Amino acid sequence: MTDGLGGTDGSAGTGHRPSRPAPSVFGLGAGLIATVMTVATAWDWKYGTGFSLLEVFDKFGNNNPVISAIPDTEFSQMFSPRSRNAFVETLRLAVLGTASGVLVARPLALWSTSFGAPNRVALVVVRTISNVIRAFPDILWALLFVSAVGIGVLPGVMALFLFTIAVVTKLTADTLDGIDMGPVEAANATGARRAQMLRTAVVPQILPAYASYSLYAFELNLRASVVLGLVGAGGIGQRIEFFRSQNQWEKVWGLVVMFVIVVFIVDRVSTLVRRRLI
Amino acid sequence: MIRFTKASVTYGGGVHAMKDLDLEIRDGEFVVIVGLSGAGKSTLIRTVNGLVPLTSGTLEVNGAEVTALSRRGTRDLRADIGMIFQGFNLVNRTTVLNNVLMGRLHRVPTWRTLLGWYPGADVEIAMRALERVEIVEKAYVRAANLSGGQRQRVGIARALAQEPKIILADEPVASLDPPTSHVVMRYLQQINRELGMTTIVNLHFLDLATAYADRIIGLRSGELVFDGSGADADATVFENIYGRSLTADDTMAKEAAGL
Questions:
Q1: By CB distance 3.0 to 4.6 Å, which of A121, A141, B69, B170 could disulfide with A159?
Q2: Higher confidence at residue B22 or residue A8?
Q3: Do A234 and A241 form a contact (C-beta atoms < 8 A)?
Q4: Min Cα separation B89/chain A (Å)
């Protein structure tokens, strides 16, 4: 036995090549199950949906008020003051929900790590809270808040606030799992308090990712705010819902076009900024 | 003064990293700890500032019993002990100055830390620490843009900024090339001689140990197997510490020449 002087990879000449390992049973099984499930749910039987492409084409070919309104799209809706106000309200909703959410998400994320939490109890409590928030979809939060505080912007902001906390806490906490623990040890070795250690050794490491997640949350919130409006949580969604209930599909399409343009612009800007951050 | 009495450390998996250690280190000494990896060098250094708690026995540092300290007391103790790491442990995304200011955290109120608004006097101390290791011109450069040797000097400056009584250095040159290693060791020696800080350094290169140490402590499987001056430590002593004959890998000079 040598003690591996100048140890390079492997010991050339000795040993024999291993035979190729058998394919993983788990991978094969998972693939098989996924395929079977997909086919079974689509098939036309007791437990299936009976999905058929032919049916899709048939139905779209029928005289459909939604589709047939497309050529008559009222682009003038984009310039009506009421629509514009509703749009501004949607933006306000998204900005307010995102800003308040990301502020709360940062300490929550720090507290949901073993090195950031002051004790085990705080760790478990914070993790449970963010898991519960995440378990409810945003639309459900909006429905709850609309019933609780009535129709308007407030339930929308509250729903987006919680939704942002859920998304940004989760993503930031995952980033925290992968940080370099060396500076944490160094800060602790200087006799720093926990908050000081987190601020000087941890926050600089996660700040770019956190900023990026915050922007991403804003993109998600802008889209979500429309859906929330459908259940009465204010903004452009509420106006779309109004026209929809009156079967004024030309106006609905006008608003949709406007919304797509806004989302596209926000997406592009946000993507450019985020690319520079990471 | 640092005094271990019947001190032991046993880790979760039943590994005895320190066995019944009796050791006294006087103020102002420059002590080098040698031993193979796994001999308990890092454990010994980390018990001094309480990063690793003793399983049994007692350890007195600057008059305080480390095992009996409250959380607050531990922080106060650590404020007087600077630490230097093998992997530098700098925050790469921030400036050199911010990294060195970490050494001032114990003296700075938490709210100021949170705002990143350090008192002028503390910035001055950090700058002087950078001047001592001759890297002050990099104060506003991101730590990520420095070479390994420069990073370790920043690591030393961070420890100095604490204005500590004791400096612990855990394999400070293991990630550096031989010439840079000597530069770093000379800074540590200078700090020990000029500022009188007790310095404990873990090393695994024998020639570096004998070149810089006033006193060498040899560890083997968590036990003290040698304690003497650098001059007393010859090849036989090291063969006993390592429990095997010496090879070219054990000295930095031969490694540098051989590669």
A1: A141
A2: B22
A3: no
A4: 4
User: Length of chain A, please?
Assistant: 278
Q: Note the residue count of chain B.
A: 259
Query: How far is the C-alpha of B96 from the C-alpha of B155, rounded, in Å?
Result: 9
Q: Which chain B positions have a beta carbon within 8 Å of A192's beta carbon?
A: 75, 102, 105-106, 113
Q: How many CB pairs under 8 A join A and B?
A: 89
The DSSP line for A41-93 is HHSSSTTS----HHHHHHHHHS--HHHHTGGG--GGGGG-HHHHHHHHHHHHH
Q: Decide if B91 and A183 are in contact by the 8 Å CB cutoff.
A: yes
Residue among A189, A193, A197 minimizing CB distance to B83: A189
CA distances from A108 to A126, A137, B109 (A): 6, 19, 23
pLDDT score of B19 more than 70 = yes
ipTM of this predicted complex? 0.92
Kind and range of the H or E element at B61? Answer: strand B56-61
Parts of chain A belonging to CATH 1.10.3720.10: 70-277
Q: CA torsion sign, B114 to B119 to B125 to B129?
A: positive
Q: Classify domain A70-277 by CATH architecture.
A: Orthogonal Bundle (1.10)
What are B's interface residues with A at a Cβ cutoff of 8 A? 49, 51, 74-83, 85, 87-94, 98, 101-103, 105-106, 108, 110, 113-114, 116, 158, 162, 244, 247-249
